[in-house]
Design a protein that fits this description.
Elements (H helix, E strand, L loop, with lengths): L12 H10 L3 E8 L4 E5 L3 H25 L7 E5 L3 E9 L2 E8 L4 H19 L9 H5 L3
Antiparallel strand pairs: 1-2, 1-5, 3-4, 4-5
Protein name: Putative regulator of Ras-like GTPase activity (Roadblock/LC7/MglB family)
Organism: Actinomadura livida
Pfam family, one: Robl_LC7
């Protein structure tokens, strides 16, 4: 996969679509900020993509906490969950960004992991997510 031109950085769904074309056993994928906000999706309706983003963020956060406590590092390369008929892969994708991929049960984890890493390496600068500014006291006290 080739790199991303700066003017294409806003629409990242085509990257995920390309990943699905490279590895046909991928059922869908989402790119999210580390705090769970959906940035791009392929293969899921909006509601499912947002749910997977929230779940992936939680699993990634748990893995980071585990690493900080037991591995002297909060660096997480990949989280893999083997489900009944699917496999879930969650990888760090750049500053404050995470890539989650749901593949079929028959997927070769080495192939999925390799293609995810290859995608991330080729476009990492465009996957970074800026940290959202903290809410001011006035904004926090404002009724919704």
């Amino acid at each position: 996969m080739s790199g991303v031109a700066p003017n294409q950085a806003q629409d990242l769904a085509w990257l995920l679509r390309g990943l699905g074309e490279e590895v046909p056993v991928i059922r869908g994928s989402v790119l999210l900020s580390a705090d769970g906000m959906l940035k791009a999706a392929h293969g899921f309706d909006r509601t499912s993509a947002e749910q997977l983003s929230a779940l992936a963020s939680g699993l990634f956060s748990i893995a980071r906490s585990t690493g900080a406590k037991f591995d002297d590092s909060n660096e997480v390369r990949q989280v893999v969950a083997e489900l009944r008929s699917s496999q879930l892969f969650i990888s760090w994708a750049g500053y404050n960004s995470v890539l989650a991929v749901l593949a079929g049960a028959d997927a070769d984890p080495a192939v999925v992991g390799f293609e995810m890493a290859r995608l991330i390496r080729s476009v990492r600068p465009f996957l970074h997510t800026a940290v959202r500014p903290a809410a001011t006291a006035i904004e926090r006290d404002r009724p919704i």
